[in-house]
Specification:
heterodimer; A: 263 residues; mainly alpha; 9 helices; B: 154 residues; alpha+beta; Rossmann fold; 2 domains; two-stranded parallel sheet; two-stranded antiparallel sheet; 7 helices
Chain lengths: 263, 154
C-alpha cells in the first residue's frame, strides 16, 4: 500500500516540479551556450537575463518542493479529498510515512537538479579548480578528507531540510485540529516549532561551551576560535537535528493516530 | 459516499478508476466502465471539467461498483436536478450487491420515498423515530415526507 500511496503522492508533487526542472535546465543550457559567443553587450545582457532566470527557477524549485509537500498533506488529510484518504484500506501511519517519503524523494531530486543546473551554468575548469581548492582547504581546517567533509555537509543539509518538512507537517497537524483559522494556526505553530528547537540548539551549544573553553570562544569573540570547536558544534548540530526530526515524526504520528478534524 | 466531491479534481475518470482498482480489492472496474458507458461519460474527461451533477454520478458509480455489505450514502441527491436524482436512485437500486444494505442520509425525502424499507428520523443528534416505511405510512395514513414535515414542524 505504501508504494501505491507513494506513486500518487509523487505524481501530484512532481507535476509542477517537472516543469520547473525543465525550465531551469533549459535556461542553464541557454546560459552556457550564450557564454560561448563572442563578448558583446547584447550577449552579455542575454547571459545576465538567463542567469537571473536560472537563479529564480532554482529558488522556485527549492520553495515549491516544501510548499507542494505541505499542500498535498493538507488537501489529502483535511480537505474534501480527505473523505477518500481516510476511508482507504490503509493505516494512518502509512499515509503519514508516504507523505514524508514523498517530501524526501522530491527534495533529493530537486537537490540533484539544482546541482546539475549550477554545473551547466558555471562549470568551467577554472571554477572547478577554485571549488576544489576551497574544499581541500576547508577539509584541511576541519582535519578530515574532502569526501568526509562533503558527506558531513550533505548529512547536515539533509537533516536540516528534513527538519523544515517535519516542522511544516507538525504545524499543520496541530493547526488543523482547531475549528477556525486552521491555516493561520498552522503557520504560527510551525513558526514556533522551528524557532524553539533553534533556540534549544543554541542553548545546548552554550552548555557544551561551559565544559569546553574552545567552544565558549565561539560565543565570546569573532577570532581565535579553533576548528576543533566548530567540528564539535557541527556534529552536535547533526545529532540534535536528528533528534528533532525523530521527535516531530513520533509526535505527528501519535497525534494523527488520535484522529483528524476534517473540513 | 460523502456529500462533497472527494476526488482529486485534477484526475481524469480513467485515473480515478485505476486508483480505486489499486486500493480496493472489491472494486469491479468492468461494472464501473459499464455504468459510465450507460451514462455517456468519457473516461478521458477531467473531473474538474464535470458539472456537480456529473461528479455526483461518478462518485455514486465508484461506490456502487464495490462489492460491499453496507453502502452509506450521505445526501446523494443534494445539488442535482430531478432527472439526475432519478438516475441516482435507479443506479442505487439496480447495483448494490446481493444481501447488502444501503443507508441513505437525506433531506429530500419525497425523492427517495419509493425506495425506502426502513426510516429513521434524527433531530438534534437524537433518534426521534424508527420504523418500517410501510408500517409508518399505514399507521399515520400519510407519506413519509408528510410525516417528517409534521414531526419537524417549525
Amino acid at each position: 500500500m505504501l508504494r501505491k500511496l507513494l506513486k500518487y503522492d509523487l505524481k501530484w508533487c512532481y507535476k509542477p516540479l517537472i516543469v520547473f526542472y525543465g525550465l531551469a535546465l533549459f535556461f542553464s543550457v541557454i546560459t552556457r551556450v550564450v557564454e560561448q559567443f563572442p563578448e558583446s553587450v547584447i550577449f552579455m545582457l542575454i547571459d545576465k537575463i538567463c542567469c537571473g532566470i536560472v537563479i529564480v527557477m532554482l529558488i522556485n524549485i527549492l520553495i515549491n518542493n516544501f510548499i507542494r509537500a505541505w499542500v498535498r498533506f493538507i488537501k489529502n488529510l483535511y480537505k474534501d479529498e480527505s473523505y477518500l484518504t481516510h476511508t482507504l484500506p490503509v493505516h494512518k501511519n502509512t499515509i503519514f510515512l508516504a507523505k514524508i517519503l514523498t517530501a524526501i524523494i522530491t527534495m533529493l531530486t530537486s537537490a540533484v537538479v539544482i546541482l546539475v543546473c549550477l554545473v551547466i551554468c558555471y562549470g568551467s575548469e577554472e571554477n572547478w579548480q577554485m571549488f576544489q581548492n576551497f574544499m581541500e582547504q576547508t577539509a584541511l581546517l576541519f582535519d578530515c578528507s574532502v569526501v568526509s567533509f562533503v558527506v558531513t555537509m550533505v548529512i547536515t543539509l539533509f537533516f536540516q531540510s528534513l527538519f523544515v518538512i517535519f516542522v511544516g507537517y507538525f504545524g499543520i497537524i496541530i493547526g488543523y485540529r482547531a475549528n477556525q483559522f486552521k491555516l493561520v494556526k498552522s503557520i504560527v505553530i510551525g513558526f514556533f516549532a522551528y524557532i524553539v528547537p533553534c533556540l534549544l540548539t543554541l542553548g545546548v551549544m552554550y552548555g557544551i561551551g561551559i565544559f569546553d573553553p574552545e567552544v565558549m570562544k565561539l560565543f565570546q569573540s569573532v577570532s581565535g576560535f579553533s576548528m576543533k570547536a566548530l567540528k564539535t558544534l557541527l556534529w552536535s548540530g547533526i545529532a540534535l537535528y536528528l533528534i528533532y526530526d525523530i521527535v516531530y515524526y513520533l509526535l505527528g504520528k501519535k497525534i494523527l493516530e488520535k484522529g483528524v478534524n476534517v473540513d | 459516499m460523502p456529500e462533497r466531491t472527494y476526488l482529486d479534481k485534477e484526475m481524469k475518470i480513467s485515473q480515478v478508476l485505476q486508483y480505486f482498482s489499486e486500493f480496493y480489492t472489491n472494486f469491479d472496474t468492468q461494472k464501473a466502465l459499464k455504468l459510465l458507458t450507460d451514462l455517456n461519460l468519457d473516461i478521458h474527461t477531467r473531473i474538474a471539467k464535470m458539472s456537480k451533477g456529473m461528479q455526483e454520478k461518478l462518485q455514486l458509480i465508484l461506490v456502487m461498483s464495490r462489492d460491499a455489505k453496507l453502502y452509506i450514502l450521505d445526501e446523494p441527491l443534494g445539488g442535482v436536478d430531478p432527472a439526475t436524482r432519478d438516475y441516482i436512485l435507479d443506479t442505487i437500486l439496480s447495483n448494490f450487491s446481493d444481501g447488502a444494505s444501503v443507508l441513505i442520509s437525506t433531506h429530500l425525502i419525497a425523492d427517495i420515498e419509493r425506495i425506502l424499507d426502513e426510516v429513521i428520523f434524527i433531530g438534534d443528534g437524537e433518534v426521534i423515530l424508527t420504523s418500517s416505511a410501510d408500517e409508518l405510512r399505514n399507521k399515520e395514513n400519510a407519506s413519509i415526507d408528510e410525516i417528517f414535515r409534521r414531526c419537524f414542524k417549525c
